[in-house]
Specification:
The complex is a heterotrimer.
Chain A lengths: L6 H12 L2 H27 L5 H14 L2 H18 L9 H27 L2 H9 L4 H31 L11 H12 L2 H30 L18 H12 L8
Helix pairs in contact in A: 1-8, 1-9, 2-3, 2-5, 3-5, 4-5, 5-7, 6-7, 7-9, 7-10, 8-9
Chain B lengths: L1 E10 L2 E11 L4 E5 L6 H8 L7 E6 L2 E4 L5 H8 L2 E4 L11 H11 L5 H14 L15 H14 L4 E5 L7 H16 L4 E4 L3 H7 L2 E6 L2 E6 L1 H6 L4 H10 L1 H6 L1
Parallel strand pairs in B: 3-8, 3-9, 6-7, 7-8
Antiparallel strand pairs in B: 1-2, 1-4, 4-5, 9-10
Chain C lengths: L4 H12 L2 H27 L5 H14 L2 H23 L10 H27 L2 H9 L4 H31 L11 H12 L2 H30 L9
C-alpha cells in the first residue's frame, strides 16, 4: 500500500497543508459565530422557562447532541435546500462552504447553549440578590455581576468546544471542501505517500489546538483573577491547582455526545 | 422612619408572614428574634424587596410603596432607601474589596470614580480593612468579608441597614470583630434592623426588640422589658432555651 | 429531487442491518479504551517516572488531533509497520490479513483510551483524600483501598462522563466509511446513492443514532440510580 516511508515528505507537506489552514480556521471562526448566536437564542427560553419555546429548545439540543456530526453534515447538505424550497427560497446554488458553516454552527450552538445555561445557573443566587440590595436594576445586575462571573465559569468549557470544533472540521472534506484533511488526502493519493501526509496533518492539528488552548487559558486566567486564593482553607485534597482541576473537569464534561438536557 | 403595615407573604399555601405591622424610628436599632422558620428573615428580605410581599405597605423615609401595585421602577426606588448585609456575605466574587464597596456608588448613585474611591477607602478603613483594599473575597476570612459587606452597605448612605444574621456563618472566633463593627456604627445613630441569635448583642445594642414566631410578632418592647419580663408564654419558652449561655457570661 | 416521506421508512428498515456493526465497533473501542484509560490514568496520578510523561504525551496528542487522523494513521501506518517487522524477523503475518474492521477497532480503542484516561483521572481526583486515609486507618493495603473504596466512588462520579464518552465513540464510529466498513452511516450512503434519495436516507440514519443515544442515556440513568444510592443527600 503506497510508497515506502520517507520522512522528508512529512516536512515537504507541511507548507502545502498550511496553505489550507486558512480554510479550516474560516470554518471554525464562522461556525463559532453562528454557534454563539444560536447558543444564546436556545439558552434564553430555557433559562427563563418560556413554555413551548423551552420544549423546542430541548428537542433542538437533544437532536444535535444525539446524532453524529457527519450525519448532520449530509442531512443539511441534502435537506436544507429541500426545506427552504417550501419557503420559496432557492439555495441549491449556494457554495458548499455555506452549508458546512451552517451545520457546524447549529451543532456547536447546541453545545454552546448548554454551556451558557450551566454557567449562568452556576452563579450563586446571592450575587444577584446583593446586586439588587445595592440598588441595581436587573439589567445592571445581569451585565455587571452575572455575566462576568458566568463567563469565567464558561471559558474552560468554551475552550474545549472550540477545540472539538476544530477537530470536527476534518469531516468537511466529505462534502468536498478543500480544507486541511481534504488537502492531505489529495496530496497522499497524488504521491502515494499517505502516511507522511497524515503525520504532517496530525502535527498541524496538534499545534493549532495547543495554541488555541493556550490562548483561551490566558483569557481564563484573566477572568478568574478573583479566584486565585492563597490556598488557605482548602479542605479538600487536590493534586492540582483549583483552576486547572476545574479545567480538567470541564474538558471532560464537554465530551461530545450526550443529549441529557 | 420605617413603617411596615400589614405585610403578608406566603410561599404557595404556606403563610410565612401574617399581617405584620412594625415601626422603626430614625436612629433606632431594632433586633428581631425568633426561632428558625418564624419568618424573621423573610420579613427583612421584604423590606429590601428581595421577597415580594403579597400585600401590605412599606414606608422608608419619605418613600411609600404599596406592595399590591409595585412597578419595577418603584421597587428600584425603594431598594435605594435601604441596604442589606447578608448571612453569606454575598460579596461580588469577581471584584476586590474596594470595588465591592465602589460598585453601588458608581453604578447606582452615579458618583464619579474618584469620589467613589475616596469614600470607599474611608469606609474600609473605618471597618478596619484599610490594608485589604485590593484583596478578592476569596482571599479574605469570613469576618473580613462580612466587614466589607457592612462597608458596602454603609457606602450607600441608606435610611436603614438590614442585617440578616450577619454572624451566623462565621467561625466563633471571628464573630467578635464583626459585632464590634456593628456596635460602632450603631452608636453613630444609623438606623438598623438586625436579625440575629446573639442575645448579648441584642441586649447591649438594641433600642427595641421584636420577638416573632409563626409569621406574627408575638411581643415587642425594650430589651429590658422583653428579656427580664416577657409577657407571652412563647417568648418565655424561647428565651429559656437560649439564655443559659448568658448566665455563664456574667 | 422531491421529498418522499415513505422512503424514510424504507431506508430505516434497510439500515437496521448495519446497526450491529456500529454497536460492535462502539463496544470494542469503549471496552479496550477503558482498560487503556485506567492504566494511563493511574500512571499519571502516581507520577511514575517516564511512563507518566509518555501517558501525558499520548493523551495530549490524541485529544489535540481529530479522530479521523488516528484512523487514517493506523490504516496506512500499521500495515507498513507489520510488513517491515515481518520481513525483519521472518514472521508469517502479512498486513493484508488484517480485516478492515480491525483497523477501526485498534484506532478507535486508542482514541477512546485517551479520552477515558481523563474521565477516570478526574473521577479519581474527585474522591476525597479522607476516604483513602480512612481505608488505611482500618488497615487496608493500597490496592485494597483503591479497589474497595476509591474506585467505586470514582466510578459513581465519572459515570455521566463515561456515558458521554460512549456516546462520543458511537458517533465517532461513523468515520469507518473511510476504511470501507459498512456501518449505519456507510449503509445510508449506499441506500441514498442507489435510490437517489439522500435526504431521506440520512434522516433515517439520524433517527437511529438519536434513538441509540437516548437509549445509552436511559441505561446510564438507571445505573446511576443504583450506584448512587449511598450518595443521596439530605436528611430525610
Amino acid at each position: 500500500m503506497g510508497a515506502p516511508f520517507d520522512i522528508t515528505y512529512v516536512f515537504g507537506y507541511l507548507p502545502k497543508l498550511l496553505s489550507t489552514l486558512g480554510m479550516t480556521l474560516l470554518i471554525v471562526g464562522g461556525s463559532l459565530l453562528v454557534g454563539i448566536v444560536v447558543g444564546f437564542l436556545i439558552a434564553l427560553p430555557r433559562l427563563y422557562r418560556i413554555p413551548m419555546l423551552n420544549t423546542l429548545a430541548r428537542i433542538y439540543v437533544s437532536f444535535f447532541r444525539g446524532t453524529p456530526i457527519l450525519i448532520q453534515l449530509f442531512l443539511f447538505y441534502y435537506g436544507l435546500p429541500e426545506i427552504l424550497k417550501l419557503a420559496h427560497l432557492d439555495i441549491s446554488k449556494a457554495p458548499v462552504l455555506v452549508f458546512v458553516i451552517i451545520t457546524y454552527g447549529l451543532h456547536t450552538g447546541a453545545f454552546m447553549s448548554e454551556t451558557i445555561r450551566a454557567s449562568v445557573t452556576a452563579v450563586d443566587r446571592g450575587q444577584v440578590e446583593a446586586a439588587y440590595a445595592v440598588g441595581m436594576t436587573s439589567y445592571q445586575a445581569f451585565t455587571r455581576i452575572m455575566l462576568p462571573q458566568a463567563m469565567a465559569i464558561a471559558v474552560p468549557v468554551f475552550s474545549n468546544l472550540v477545540i472539538a470544533l476544530l477537530k470536527d472540521t476534518s469531516l468537511a472534506f466529505s462534502l468536498g471542501v478543500m480544507e486541511m484533511t481534504g488537502k492531505a488526502q489529495t496530496l497522499g493519493s497524488l504521491t502515494q505517500h499517505f502516511i507522511e501526509a497524515y503525520i504532517s496533518l496530525a502535527l498541524i492539528y496538534l499545534v493549532v489546538s495547543m495554541t488555541l488552548e493556550k490562548l483561551l487559558l490566558i483569557a481564563e486566567r484573566r477572568l478568574l483573577r478573583h479566584e486565585e486564593t492563597d490556598s488557605t482553607g482548602h479542605r479538600r485534597f487536590r493534586l492540582e491547582q483549583k483552576s486547572s482541576y476545574r479545567r480538567m473537569v470541564a474538558s471532560v464534561d464537554a465530551g461530545k455526545g450526550g443529549t441529557e438536557v | 422612619m420605617i413603617q411596615l403595615t400589614n405585610i403578608t407573604k406566603s410561599f404557595g399555601r404556606h403563610q410565612v408572614l401574617n399581617k405584620i405591622d412594625l415601626t422603626v424610628q430614625k436612629g433606632e436599632v431594632v433586633v428581631i428574634l425568633g426561632p428558625s422558620g418564624s419568618g424573621k428573615t423573610t420579613l427583612l428580605r421584604c423590606v429590601n424587596y428581595l421577597e415580594k410581599p403579597n400585600d401590605g405597605e412599606i414606608l422608608i423615609g419619605d418613600y411609600r410603596l404599596n406592595c399590591k401595585h409595585a412597578s419595577k421602577k418603584d421597587i428600584y426606588q425603594l431598594r435605594q432607601k435601604s441596604a442589606m448585609v447578608f448571612q453569606q456575605y454575598n460579596l461580588f466574587k469577581h471584584k476586590t474589596a474596594l470595588e465591592n464597596v465602589m460598585e453601588g456608588l458608581v453604578v447606582v448613585k452615579k458618583l464619579s470614580k474618584e469620589e467613589a474611591k475616596t469614600r470607599s477607602i474611608a469606609l474600609l478603613e473605618k471597618v478596619g480593612l484599610g490594608s485589604k483594599l485590593d484583596a478578592y473575597p476569596s482571599q479574605l476570612s469570613g469576618g473580613q468579608q462580612q466587614r466589607v459587606g457592612i462597608a458596602r452597605a454603609l457606602a450607600l448612605e441608606p435610611e436603614v441597614i438590614l442585617f440578616d444574621e450577619p454572624t451566623s456563618a462565621l467561625d466563633p472566633e471571628l464573630v467578635g470583630e464583626v459585632l464590634a463593627v456593628i456596635r460602632k456604627i450603631a452608636k453613630e445613630g444609623i438606623t438598623m434592623i438586625v436579625v440575629t441569635h446573639e442575645m448579648g448583642f441584642a441586649r447591649d445594642v438594641a433600642n427595641h426588640v421584636v420577638f416573632m414566631d409563626g409569621g406574627v410578632i408575638v411581643e415587642e418592647g425594650t430589651p429590658v422589658e422583653l428579656f427580664n419580663n416577657p409577657q407571652e408564654e412563647r417568648t418565655k419558652q424561647f428565651l429559656k432555651r437560649i439564655t443559659p449561655e448568658l448566665n455563664y457570661s456574667i | 429531487m422531491k421529498l418522499d416521506p415513505s422512503f424514510i421508512w424504507t431506508a430505516l428498515i434497510q439500515l437496521l442491518s448495519a446497526i450491529p456493526t456500529t454497536l460492535v465497533i462502539t463496544a470494542v473501542s469503549v471496552t479496550i479504551g477503558f482498560i487503556i484509560g485506567l492504566i494511563t490514568a493511574l500512571l499519571r496520578i502516581y507520577k511514575i517516572p517516564v511512563l507518566s510523561q509518555i501517558a501525558a504525551g499520548y493523551v495530549t496528542f490524541i485529544r489535540g488531533t481529530p479522530m479521523l487522523t488516528h484512523l487514517l494513521l493506523i490504516y496506512f501506518g500499521l500495515p507498513m509497520l507489520v510488513d517491515a517487522l515481518s520481513a525483519q524477523f521472518g514472521w508469517s503475518i502479512k498486513s493484508s490479513s488484517i480485516p478492515m474492521i480491525g483497523f477501526a477497532f485498534i484506532s478507535f480503542s486508542i482514541t477512546a483510551g485517551a479520552y477515558m484516561a481523563e474521565v477516570i483521572r478526574s473521577g479519581l481526583l474527585a474522591v476525597n483524600r479522607g476516604q483513602l486515609e480512612a481505608a488505611y486507618s482500618v488497615g487496608m493495603t493500597t490496592p485494597q483501598a483503591l479497589r474497595r473504596i476509591v474506585f467505586p466512588q470514582a466510578l459513581a462520579v465519572s459515570l455521566p462522563n463515561l456515558s458521554n464518552s460512549v456516546i462520543g465513540m458511537l458517533h465517532g464510529s461513523t468515520l469507518v466509511f473511510t476504511v470501507s466498513v459498512v456501518d449505519i452511516n456507510a449503509k445510508a450512503q449506499i441506500v441514498a446513492s442507489t435510490n437517489w434519495k439522500f435526504f431521506e436516507a440520512y434522516l433515517a440514519a439520524a433517527v437511529i443514532f438519536w434513538g441509540l443515544t437516548l437509549l445509552i442515556e436511559r441505561i446510564t440513568a438507571v445505573i446511576e440510580k443504583r450506584i448512587n444510592l449511598y450518595n443521596r443527600g439530605g436528611v430525610a
